[in-house]
Amino acid sequence: MKHFFKSIVAFLLALLARGILLKYRPKVVMVTGSVGKTSTKDAVAAALSASFHLRASEKSYNSEFGVPLTIIGAKNPWTNPYAWVRVLGEALALIFLPNHYPKLLVLEVGADSPGDLKRILHIATPDVVVVTKLPEVPVHVEAYASAAAVREEEFAPAYALAAGAPLIISADDPYAKRLASRLSLHVTTYGFGRDADVRLEDAKVLLSGTTPLGMQAKVTVGTNAAHTLETLGALGRPQLYAPAAALATALALGMTTENALKALESYVPPSGRARILKGKNASVLIDDSYNASPSAVEEALSSLSLVPAKRRIAVLGDMLELGRYSAEEHERIGKLAAMHADIVIGVGPRSKKLSEAALSTHKNKNRAHHFDDAHAAATHLRETIEAGDVILVKGSQSIRVERIVEALLADIGDVVHLVRQEREWKKR
Questions:
Q1: CATH classification of 2-264, choosing from 3.20.20.70, 3.30.479.30, 3.40.50.2300, 3.40.1190.10?
Q2: Is the pTM of this model over 0.90?
């Protein structure tokens, strides 16, 4: 019965969302990929806001429910049937009554299983597509025949573009470049590669003493003079990809570099994506608790190694939905973590292999630990963290490692910056 109700609601939402798009015909910028979608979507919205009346997906509204809710302009009703009725009423009002609707939509789209993006593309057709990273071992791979099949689906929005339409991809991603080479589109690249149209270089951590403030890099468009690009409040090279992709998108839509960079000053990295927070006992927290996949954990560990610290502590929860890759990837990440961190803490059943791999590399039982859940890990960390420690916290959603971050906050008021703080999530 629950599945039947869900199918009916998804059908109605899709029908109404298509009706809204047919009536108002906004330009659609679609953001897809395995990692970094929400950061990129938020940065694109910030860059374009100076020139367009737009609406962007809230948080990570990227599913067959989230995309229609964005088109309608409604919040997630969760399990409240009265709120769902209100959403349907809002959609009908948009279709049958005059409204001042956005001229541009920035839609984040994602796939958990085969066919998800096909259903979304039946609702909305993109005018511009931005592709984030398509890694070797993507998240949700256990639901697909192969990693290549995941990448193919995540790239699917590009196939829906009209000939000559803008496609924005990373110059550092061989998979995206290979897939884009098949298409007759206007491809703009961003990244650290020498051939990138929007080229990043000289990336560094912005510091106040030894405290990290964010990231900075030089950005060059074509042969023009370099500009300074900054992302405050978050750590790591991935934090520079989002505004670079946004700049590339803005240029593809006719904005000037100067106007786009000025608009990007309002960009704030989303919660749970390498956000820098003050921890107990004068420690520093890197809150990367939204989700985890092997490539994202690699980037997070690289970010950890950039920060001056008394001790670097990597708290890594299970990486879910990896299927046959799970054991080997947890083991590989454990060994990698031991190279970047002084102490490695695994959280969750799958991360036991991660902790064991880190221990075998460290050869010191005091430098690698394992806990069954976030509560136990938080208790241990509260008792052991010291002034000058930098603690990275990362894990898949259901491991709920944001609870560890919450337990380690110096100021409990900073809980507003954490992911999954809605009442519905807190009940789970």
A1: 3.40.1190.10
A2: yes
